[in-house]
Amino acid sequence: MLLAHKERGALRLARPLGGLLATAVREARIHARRAPGKGVGEEQKRPLTLVPVPSARLAVAGRGHDPVRRVALAAARELRREGLPARVLTVLRQRRTVADQAGLTARERAVNLSGALELVPGSAKLLTGEETLLVDDVMTTGSSLAEAARALGEGARTVSAAAVVAFRRKAEKPPWETADN
Fold first, then answer.
1. Looking at the domain assignment, is residue 102 inside a domain?
2. Which of 26, 85, 89, 152 could pair covalently with 47 via S-S, beta carbons 3.0-4.6 A apart?
3. Backbone angle region of 40, left / alpha / beta, with phi > 0 → left and psi within -120 to 50 → alpha
4. Full domain range(s) for residue 155
5. Tens of pLDDT, residues 85-124
6. Domain containing residue 110: CATH number
């Protein structure tokens, strides 16, 4: 379903994929609230900003749409229907060209993406004081989300992440489980 939306232009699938992402967002918020020092009820009232991990410009141009942003918008609509103030801000962009991630190991993906994203100039002020949740369509190793979190830097109050689909290769540990991260 995700590939049909992303690669074959089945745009009508953005809504059900957004529903799946909204479920992942709710789970991420529950997990974040369980962290030490978090009040259970206070987070539900604060605005939630979904920040899509940007795709390569050439990929977006080739597809004719930005699938991650489209799904994030559908998720935000679903969350607002449930009473959660949610919005989507496209505040990250690619600073440089990266190689296609397909076939790369976790380490190669991390190196490929290291320093590749940046905040759009002037956008940090839009994130101040709000809960920020990074969203992606697929999480394989977590490298894209880790780079996006690095690029957000100190501008965001709280950074969590959610993806529509997550998997990992059997032979590899994700970057957050390696000794040097």
1. yes
2. 85
3. alpha
4. 2-8+16-32+43-171
5. 999 999 999 988 887 777 888 888 888 888 899 988 888 8
6. 3.40.50
